[in-house]
Amino acid sequence: MKIFSGWHRFIFGLLLLFILIHMYSVMDMYKNSKMEVPHKQLNKKLDHLILGPAAGKGLSNRLQCEGTKALNRTHASNSGLSLDESIAFVTVFTIYNSSLNNVNDKSSSTVVGNASYNKVDRSMAVLNAFINFIQVAMPQSKLFIVTDPVSDLSVHRNRVSLYPIDGEYSRDKLMLQRIRSYIIFLETKLQKLHQKPRNITHYIFTDSDIAVVDDLGHIFSDHPNFDLALTFRNNKAQPLNSGFIAVRGTPDSILRAKLFLQEVLKIYSSKYLKASRMLGDQLALAWVVKSKPHFDASRFAKPQAFSEDISGTSVLFLPCALYNWTPPEGAGQFHGMPLDVKVVHFKGSRKRLMLESWNFFSSSTDIEDMLCLILGSGRTKYDF
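Structure for Nucleotide-diphospho-sugar transferase, as requested:
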């Protein structure tokens, strides 16, 4: 028994020695492989636009691209406006004091291409890209930036004006304040029209993270009878998106649009105040529209424009697929991009793609528009 016990210990020792030698070899190989490619970082976030195949290839109702060239997009729209008509864009934008306190905080910086942005720089870069897109697509239009009077905001751009309106611009109340600001803005414009009638200026209220990629004047010429226009999508709970609202610039239409938005504000404040930071305005819009007796909500399922009288206001419903299209994360995924998109909405982290697309477009001389850039983005998720 003693001989067997000694032999057993010898075999166990050899086995243990073999395991240790093998582990050392594996660790040494792994160490050497890291030394050979020290620059390789598997988890490194991409900081620039990567173009890949554009989704929707072969589908007749989707944009077809060859590289960055659109193959089946129609020519840019003519505005169709008369000489005494013009368009002004209106957006609500402010800079928070907490952001100003962290302008030198490197932990909050974001790299896009060759540029690094802190929180304030990031917001201003998006605002400037928003202005750039408008001025390329609609160079004769004006832009009003509605802001908190105490906000340290400075913008020096042609045809761009700051429009201070008192109110609560905190993050928790911004969406609620936005509706209030729209109402005050319309009231002011209506008073000026009554005092001194002048040429007609139509207004398009938008978020500041959109890109206008075509002339939108045709909305007012092709649909001459609406007072206010909203964009819709096939979403049962939130069929209406508040990021794009158009108002005809006649006194009667401005008045009706103001009354409509006042009703939205009333519902927002009474029913959806808990959602004041986000979605409350969209829920209130849907409630006001759907509360009309016999309103056919099934029309939201088809991306075709239609009109309805809502409490005395003629409301034009425009499909988000054309006038408020949002790229899926990964941009070119799903079923591609609808034909003839006019407005691209870079919600949330997609703002990075907005900056990338503008930078790429503005630095290239052979790109007609940026839709194929957006569609061909190879990103699977944005990080902005």
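Confidence is low (pLDDT under 50) at residues 29-44.
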